[in-house]
Amino acid sequence: MSTLSLAVRDSATMLRRNLLHARRYPSLTLNLLLTPVMLLLLFVYIFGGVMSAGLGGGADRSAYIAYVVPGILLMTIGSTVIGAAVSVSTDMSEGIIARFRTMNIHRGSVLIGHVIGSVLQSVASVVLVGIVAVAIGFRSTDATVLEWLAAFGLIVLFALALTWIAVGMGMVSPNAEAASNSAMPLILLPLISSAFTPIDAMPGWFQPIAQYQPFTPAIETLRGLLLGTEIGHNGWLAVAWSIALAALGYRWSTASFKRDPK
């Protein structure tokens, strides 16, 4: 069997293993998924009337739903991939990785299984949150088929990037609780982006913080694809951020995996 065939076979096995874990222990996924759903409902029904004033032009609650949903969708990815950090840290601390090291399997398949499984869960979570968004009034009638495909590609690429970062966090965390805590910035960063209010409406000293971070260009790109707003330079910035984070997370994760187990 060739090296490529071995890698594909073992990666598929590790993917099935991770998906089975997610199915047998759904509480973690559900807890992570509830965060963006609750935030969506909170900001639409509790703060929506007030927050819509920041959009200007006499915007109402329905306009704010259209504005906030793209940010919530990407926040869903940041929330879901925390499960990858917890899962990897659990494997490392419980010794199963040490057992895998002694087996005749492709070394990279262990991490690849975690990454692909997390990306699939992230996409499924985005779909579920999107269904909730449509149920409360979100519409994207102007987006073409090509724009929908581009939006889906951006979601997958961004999920891949954040997953590799989460895997790296899980590799260096001593236990699952520490992994969950270290991955919290993946949920907090969207809160200080353009997800909930335009950057122009923020205080001047805070605007660079919101502008120069990975979530803002990704949110603005997704918003432009789904709603037809101006994307500008945010498109290539979102792709550049995603590629850079994926490369960083990959190098971090593989370097940590090559070291002696905890």
Can you offer a commentary on this structure?
- The protein is mainly α.
- The chain contains 13 helices and no strands.
- The chain has helices spanning 3-24, 27-46, 48-51, 61-80, 82-94, 96-102, 109-135, 145-172, 176-182, 185-188, 207-211, 215-227, 234-258.
- α1 crosses α7, α4 (61-80) runs antiparallel to α7 (109-135) and α5 runs parallel beside α8 (145-172).
- The radius of gyration is 19 Å and the shape is elongated.
- The model has no long low-confidence stretch (mean pLDDT 84).
Key features?
mainly alpha, 74% helix
Describe how the helices and strands are arranged:
Layout (H helix, E strand, L loop, with lengths): L2 H22 L2 H20 L1 H4 L9 H20 L1 H13 L1 H7 L6 H27 L9 H28 L3 H7 L2 H4 L18 H5 L3 H13 L6 H25 L4
Oligomer: single chain
- Give the SSE string: HHHHHHHHHHHHH
- Any idea what the shape is? elongated
Number of strands: 0
Q: Helix share of residues? A: over 70%
Distance between the termini: 32 Å
Strand content: under 5%
* Rounded Rg: 19 Å
Structural class, judged by helices and strands? mainly alpha
- Counting DSSP H or I runs of 4 or more residues, the number of helices is 13
Largest sheet: none
* Unreliable parts: none
Task: Give the overall pLDDT as a whole number.
Answer: 84
Structure at a glance:
By secondary structure, this protein is an all-alpha fold.
